[in-house]
Give the backbone structure.
Amino acid sequence: MELLIPVIKISVVLGVLLGVVAYTVLVERRVAAAIQNRVGPNRVGWNGLLQPLADVIKLVMKEDIVPKQANRFIHDLAPMISMAIALITFAVIPFGDSITLFGQAIKLQIASVNIGILYILAMTSLGVYGITLSGWSSNSKYSLLGGLRSSAQMLSYELAMGLSVIGVVMIAGSLELDKIVQTQHGWMWNILLQPVGFVTFVVASFAETNRHPFDLPEAEPELVGGYHTEYSGLKFGLFFLAEYTNMVTSSAVITTLFLGGWQIPYIGLAGLPAFWVSILQVLAFCVKVYLLVLFFIIIRWTIPRFRYDQLMNLGWKVMLPLSVLNLLVTGLVILYL
Amino acid sequence: MLEQYIPIGFMFIVAIIFGIVMSKLSEWLGPKNPNDVKLSTYESGMEPVLSARERVSVKYYMVAMLFILFDIEVVFLYPWAVNFRSLGLFGFVEMLVFTVVLMLGYIYLLKKGALKWQ
């Protein structure tokens, strides 16, 4: 029984996560089509709802091509790292308060570790390995350039990301994600207490997930496909899935840290039974996360891409000083207000 | 204490198995008819020239080194942030001194042009 609960939680969370990710690909294509005044994929199933399945089957049935010059072992390893890391990050996200089922209180979080934030930062920085190794192992110039750019970019924005979290940690006085959500009761969401930290964190998340407008590692006009130029079949698909999983995970992290996580303001006043409150809170968390995912998608199709020097300047000369300043201001406010 | 991490261990195993199976699926199920041209690296349709593993711009090394410096600063800040309220004004001033010293270094490397990309 002790071990059964985590296993059930992991299967449910991974199932939901992968389902959401598969459909996010479809949502992105439909949103892009709507923005560009097209129809988008609507032929497979009702209104294109079976499109993700068709995509996966198509990718599975493709030939797996590994270039002769490539380092075969690392070439195989890289997509696996990308995907596994993207999934593992989700383990510490609290997606609800505890719920009572069959007379047992179950915490709606896979692993409630006391250093949740450090775990997330550590895992997101491991994500750079997948991309860098795929770029290097393909032994193609485009892949190598994509991998190099991506590692430099992710390193630069990780600083701003780490620094903007510290403001939140100072307010909550804990690295535990559960505690951070609990301090954001009512309307005390961290987005109101830490507006600058929120902006820097969101921008850094865009850069960490290699999403537009920071998707220089795979800038099509200059680098063909970037780090995944030499990949085919489901290995290519894995990079794609990993990108969308990272997007969902970052949205979940932003929700947890800044948008109150599963909190619904003043739900305690409505007098609902505890069970339904928990269900509503889980739903609120999902809605917040998905609105952020939609934000990621809309940004991608409306804003042009940065140039590489602009990207590095933004990271080192704007985001870094800004987040250090935010830290000092937060400290002063906590001390004197 | 450490038993909090057991679910994470499970998740690691599941995620790694998922990754391995997914990345091998098209190798198992897809067609296999390789030929020399198909297996050469992509270079806009031209014959590949030299290997890709050449020297890379020193800029990337600079970024990596500076990242390590500043990331260590961030790591020092975490325990301080957790205990911020109990440390009070003294802790704040201590960290202010530390940050100012680091920012002096930051200004120096900006002046040196270590982060200039052309």
In short: The two ends of chain A are 48 Å apart (CA to CA). The CA atoms of residues 70 and 95 of chain A lie 41 Å apart.
